[in-house]
Structures are given as structure tokens and as C-alpha cells.
Amino acid sequence: MDNPVFLLHDYLTDSARRLPEKIALVCQRQRLSYAEIDARSNALAHALVRRGVGRGDRVAVFADNTIETVVSFWAVLKANAVVTIVNPQTKVDKLAYLLNDCRAVALISDGHLAAVLAEAAARSTHLRTVVIFGANDESRTGRLPGAVGWDHALQAESPAKPPIRRSIDIDLAAIVYTSGSTGDPKGVMLTHRNMLMAATSITAYLENVEDDVILNALPLSFDYGLYQMIMAFRMGARLVLERGFTYPAQVLRLIVDEGVTGFPGVPTMFATLAQMKTLGEFDFSRIRYVTNTAASLPVKHITMLGELFPRAAIYSMYGLTECKRCTYLPPEYLKDKPTSVGVAIPNTELWIVGEDDQRLGPNQVGQLVIRGATVMKGYWEKPEATAKKLRPGPLPGEFVLYTGDYARLDEDGFLYFVGRMDDIIKSRGEKVAPKEVENVLTNIKGVKEAAVIGVPDEILGQAVKAFVVLEEGVVLSDKDIVRECQRCLENLMVPKHVVFVDDLPKTTTGKIKKTELA
Amino acid sequence: MIPAEQIRQFITTNFYLPDPIKLSDDASFLDSGIIDSTGVLEVVRFLEESFGIVVGDSEMLPENLDSVQNLVAFIGRKRSESVP
Questions:
Q1: Average pLDDT, integer, range A50-57
Q2: A295: containing domain
Q3: Could you give the 3-state DSSP secondary structure of residue B62?
Q4: Share of chain A above pLDDT 90, in %
Q5: pLDDT for A70-90, tens place per residue?
Q6: Are residues A432 and A414 in the same domain?
Q7: Are residues A407 and A491 in the same domain?
Q8: Per DSSP, what are the bridge partners of residue A512?
Q9: Crossing angle for the helix pair A92-101 and A114-122, nearest 10 degrees?
Q10: A357 and A270 both lie in a single domain
């Protein structure tokens, strides 16, 4: 008889009990079984506990999509702690901010990232342990608090059982950081129960099965990518983990070689596929479903996907990190309602409200509100920002999510996304907060003012465009600006276009009028 | 300028490297986070413009593009292919 699943890592332990020899993970040309991942995560969990990681403590994982990142995620949960996976392109200032915001006591990272992690860790207030895997630059990391090599840490521990279980399902499992219009990343707090419900609901409508082979080329630091792993392990399926879509031909070859059945993507990936000329040589008949979210799927790509993956059901979906996913379009409606993002996911409810908080009827545009068990507990230690998003729901003590997105429902109850209420840019399906880029720009010596907007871009969805006003007598080139941005920001936030202007349009109260920039 | 030098110069001018001097010939661009998906397209354009070679979709692989050394070898192979 199966044990009830109360905590997220029960997915791993249950699958390991049922299917110990089954290959759970294909990554970096290695194949790991459920038993191996279970064992390694047990050992790492003990290593963390031994070094003082306690129940509810936050542990950051700063790495790319690697075997160790996968093992670390489950290990932190088994240690009864809270995991946050940080994008490996994060630079020093932001990493230091994240570590201090959540007061991380431990950091697990890749030696390749030594330069960034060492500097950020040195600025951290609470870090006591740093576990490094891969090539380690001891000159940088040796002096960090509790620095220990991965192999060394794991070898000392017994992999047979996890540490004593102390969490319950309403405890936090993860913090997923997301950008907002103020520029300061906010930590979305997710309990085990939030995440179990999200995984249950999504695997239900995708009809995931144990035989599925799910490709994930999306960052694990992005909830869309993270859940591919969670859902695969829930089902006892196989995850094929890639670092990204940088070398599309390689990913496509892998899809064929591994018999991938599920292909989650974002519009950028599909745009890349659309431009490739030699797709005919790949046999994609095993792909049973393709999903899209994070930005709307252009109709021409829907057509392309239908032709490229002839046996696949295509799912257009929409969601926010704050509730994981809101809607999905059942594939049979794709033809009739290609621009819709569909209906509420199983066990979620939604409605649209006007400015006065009154529920609106069909074809009226208003703010989308989400009610259900996937709604976050709030932003970590940001009560004001939380209060804007979580407001009392119908029952005493419950909260519903005010998404900050404009949407409308048609007469059949299908949702259409209209736009964001704040001015977040969506590039490659991921959020770029203009303020975060503007902060970096205005910090550049010689820059007087800057404004950043999103402009339509065929491949990226939206491209980041910066308008820069230089100080008197200063001469800077657009390359100078871009270089400085590359130094401080993740790649996708670096402006694609830089325009120098004499002045920025302002309102009477002195605020920059972005609506007049294009 | 020999290909390795040209490539190095292109990379260090167009991408952000914390330590340009330390870019060894065999250092993986992907591992060091120097180049991502849009970056690779720029590299391909550079190859086409500077060395007159055409890069096919199926040739966009780490073995061909992911380090100075791999690029040099790839250019060498492509050039010898086009010799009649």
C-alpha cells in the first residue's frame, strides 16, 4: 500500500521505492536511476543537517541545470529546509541580495561560478556552509564559511535513509524569486501543499504517465522548468535535462534518441525551430504533447508546431509564479480559439474584476483573480507587496490572488490574456523588470537618466530597449552601455537596443512617460 | 591573423568575460556562461562573415562552436571541404 504523499520529496522516495532501477534522469550524458538520486539526496541532506541546516532554514542552489542541482533540490527538502534555485547567470549584487533577503544559511554551487559566488557569499550575513561541486577554484572559495567539496561532504554520510522528517505539508518547501516593477526580486513562498497541488493538477490535464519522457531545456530556477522535474518524479517518469536551447540541433537529436514524449517550450524556442531548415530529418512522432507558456504563442507558430509534431497535442497555457499556473487550453479548442489561454486548471477557480472589485461579465476586460490551493503564501518578508497581491477571499482566513494582469472571458468561459498592469517586459518568456535595468544604467558613470521599455521582437517576444540621456560632455557608445549591463545583469536583461536621447518625456509630476517612448 | 586570434578577439570584444586573459583555448563558452542562445547566433554570423563558411542547422553543436579550439577545428574542416 502506498504511503500518503504529504511532502514534495515523497514523490522521489515513492518512485524510488516502486521503481528503484528505472532511469529517472538523463543529464550531461549520464543516466541516473531513482535509487541513485534518492541515495545521493539522502547523503547530501545529512551533510546539510550535520552542518547546522535546521527545519525551515533557507538553502540556495546557485547552478545550471546539472545532476547536482537535481540532487540538491530534493536534498534540501529532505533536510526539512526551504530551497531556492538561483539562475546561474545571476551576478554578484543580485546574488548577494537574494542570499541576504532570505537569510540563506547554506549555499550549494558549481565551481564554475566561483568568481560570482565567492564575492556574494563574502557579503552574506547568514551563510555558514558552502558546498561546491565540479571544478573548484580553491583560491576563491577556500576561505568561505564552511566551504566543503561535494564529494567530500557526501562520502561522509549514509545514503540509506533521509534525516528524520519534521516538516508538515503547510510548511514552506521553496522560495522562487521573481522580478517585479520595483526592480527588487521578490521571493514567492510556496508550501509543500502548494507544490503538490500544482503538480497534481498539471499532470492531470497533461495526462502524464509513468512512461513519459519529459525534456526540460528550461532553467530549473524558473518554475516552468522546475516543475518538469517535479512532475516527472511524481509519475516515476524520466527527465531528460538540458542546459538550454543554445544548440537546438543537439536538443532535437536528444529528443529523438531518448524517445521524448513531452516537450515544454517558450515562444523563443519555437521561433528558433521555425527558422531551422533541416527539421525534416528528425522523427518526432513519439512526442505526445508540446506545451507553451510564459508568453503568448503566435498563431503561425501554432501551425508550425502542428506540422512539426504531428502526433502531439499542443497546450497553450498561462500562469504566474505566484500561483504556478492559472489556465490551460484543452488542445481540442486550439483550432477554434487559437488566441485563448483556456480554462482554469483542475481544482482552481478564477474570475475577472473591475476597478471597483466587482465581478465582470463576458468580454469585459478587468483584473484576473485566482482562487485555489496553488496560490502562494506571500512574498518572503515583503508584507506590502504581498498585500497588493493576496486579498481576502470568500471564506474567513483565506486569500485569493490578484494577478495584476488584465484579461477577459468569452461567452464560453475561455480566458484571453490582455496585458500586464505594470510594465514588465517579457523577453524569451521570462520577466525583465525595467526598473532593474534602469538602476544599472543610471549607475553607469556619465549616464544622467535612463528609461527602459519592451519593443516587439520576432524571436524574443519583446526586446529590451534602453533610452539613455548622457551627462554634459560625456561620450559613450552603445557598446559601452551594453558591456556595463553585461557585467551586472543576467543576459536576458541586457538591452538589445540602446538609443541616446537628449531628454526623456516626463509628466507634470516629473515621472518618466514611458507611453511616449517606442 | 590566424583563426584562433581572430576568434579570441571576436569573443572578447562582443561578450562579457570576467577574465579575458584567462580564456583558454579549450574553455567551454557554455560552462563559463559567456555565450547563450542569441550569442551563438552571433558567433555563427561571425563565422560566415569572417571565414566565408556556411553553418548548417545540424552543425550548430557544442563540438563545433563551444570553445576557441572547437571553432578553429570546425573552420579548418569546413575550409578543406570547400577545396575543389
A1: 98
A2: 193-420
A3: helix
A4: 74
A5: 999 999 999 999 999 999 989
A6: no
A7: no
A8: A506
A9: 50
A10: yes
